[in-house]
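[job 4471] stage=fold_predict status=RUNNING
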Amino acid sequence: MSSSKPVSRRHFTGLVLGSIATAGLLGGCQIRPLYGSAGGGLAGQGAGVADELAAISLDSISGISRRPAARELYNELTFKLGRGTSAPEKKYRLRVQANISTASVGVQQLSDVPASYTMTMNAHFILTDMSTDKVLLTGKSFSTAAFDFSSQRFANERANRDAEERVARSVAEDIHARLAGFFAQQM
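[job 4471] inference complete, writing structure tokens
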């Protein structure tokens, strides 16, 4: 059943005024694409976020340099920063220091052997302007991945490496998003 009550004039006026107030509040909001072009700010006239990200020189990952996660983090950041653009002159330097820790979280019943682990990567990054050596942005990122322990040696090694790759990809995604957000704010 539907009700066909007439709307009172007072109720209608309240709805109209509420709609106008909402439109007024939202009128100051700017919605624009993250990778669009805009003039002014730190990035310069007409430069887009993708161009600024491609102008970042990435130093080697310190702290975990001999682990597969360092290579994965470096490769992911290199791909995300330079994607879709020509190789411009580098204006910024990104330094990343990371560490990885592993902890057992479950024990197999009646054997005191770990059943699963969690791996955590913590990364600290610093973005500097190469011409002035001024620090533009610093931040911390972390990610955690779980993996199971089995009675097979190769399976354990592969699970450990997969967890390292997952945390590295996740940290790279977070750092990339923060850098893109920083450059978008400057435009």
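[job 4471] summary: The radius of gyration is 25 Å.
[job 4471] exit 0
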